[in-house]
Amino acid sequence: MPAGFGRLWTAQTVSSLGDGVSHAALPLLALALTRDPMALAVVTAAGTLPWLLFGVLGGALVDRWDRRRTMWVVDTARAALLVIPAAAALLDVLSIPLLAAVAFLLGLGGLFFDTAATAYLPDLLGRDPALLERANSRLRGTQTAMSGFAGPPAGSALLALGRAVPLLADAVSFLLSALLVRTLPAIPPPVPEARESLLRQARAGASYVFRDRLLLGLALRPAVGNIAFLAVETVLALFAHERLGIDTYGFGLLLTAEATGGLLGAAIASGLGRRLGTGTALTCTAAVEGLAILGLAAAPNPYVAGLALAVCGAGMGATMVLGPSLRQAIVPARLMGRVASTSRMLAMCAAPFGAFVGGWLATAYDIRTPLYAAAGLLLAMTAVTASMTSNHRVEAALRAAARADEPDHHPAPKEPAPESAPDLR
Question: Which residue from 164, 217, 121 is spatially nearest to 22, judged by alpha carbons?
Answer without folding.
Answer: 164
